Every structure is written in C-alpha cells, then in structure tokens.
Give the backbone structure.
Amino acid sequence: MIRFLMRSLGAVLLAVALVYGVADIARSLADDAVMLTPLSEALAGLGLPSTVPDGTSPATAGLLARVLAWPMSVLAGVLALLLLAAGRPGRRGRRLTP
C-alpha cells in the first residue's frame, strides 16, 4: 500500500516536473535567456503561501528562502525520481547454480 502511494505520488510529481519543464523551455526560447520558474512562483500560482512566515528563526528563514528560490521543474523531478525509486518493488533473490 505504501509502495503504491509512493509510486503514485512520484508519477504525479514527474508529470508536474514535465509541465513546468516545458513551460520553462518555452519561456526561455521566447526571451532568449534561461528562465526557470522558482518554487515561490509556482506556489503563488496555485494560491498557496509562497513567503517565509513571520516568527521563524533567522536560520530557518534563510533555509526556506533558499528552497523557495529553487527551480520547480528540477525540484519536482528529483523528488519524483526519489519517490519512484523508493516505491520500487524489491528484488527477489536469485540462486546461482554451480
């Protein structure tokens, strides 16, 4: 059951990475410069909070600010591959006959 959920979430994240990757490529070709959508813009487009909340420690705020600046397509792709690898069925032991 857990493997199924991990593989399903991995597949959805891979699709999200593909969508953002294609959008980034199209925008980069149109502007003649590399344009990658940061996580903060992607979250703002979905209507989710995309800023560091008040009252967080400076170290945590700095870390969150760095993560929010990462490209969405790369972040979703890496997370998708990690989830897909973690949800992969285990190997069966092979017997080597002499």
